[in-house]
Specification:
This protein is an alpha+beta fold and about 90 residues long. Helix content is about 45%, strand content about 30%. It has three helices and five strands; from the N terminus they run ααβββββα. Helix 1 crosses helix 2. The model has no long low-confidence stretch (mean pLDDT about 95).
């Protein structure tokens, strides 16, 4: 399912227009993004938790030259599925 299919599904399930559903989906995504940028986590009970993780710097190899390089540390978004979501899939 892509974003436009999600918007269609939300519009149908909530019995609202596609324009309203698009605004709602965009607002939800923006709220999650803003919270993660502030270092907060977003927990949706029964669905899961979005949180910020740290990836340590590490060494790697340049595939062209084989030369060893250092890959910088990075801040990454992560998702941990909730129990209800896991149970729904099994």
């Amino acid at each position: 399912m892509n974003k436009s299919e999600l918007i269609d599904h939300v519009a149908e399930a909530a019995d609202i227009s596609k324009a309203s559903a698009r605004r709602a989906v965009d607002a939800a995504i923006a709220a999650v993004k803003t919270a993660l940028q502030n270092g907060d986590s977003v927990t949706l009970v029964g669905f899961g938790t979005f949180y910020v993780g740290q990836r340590a710097s590490r060494s790697g190899r340049n595939p062209r030259t084989g030369k060893e390089i250092t890959i910088k540390s990075a801040t990454t978004p992560k998702f941990r599925a909730g129990k209800a979501l896991k149970d729904a899939l099994n």
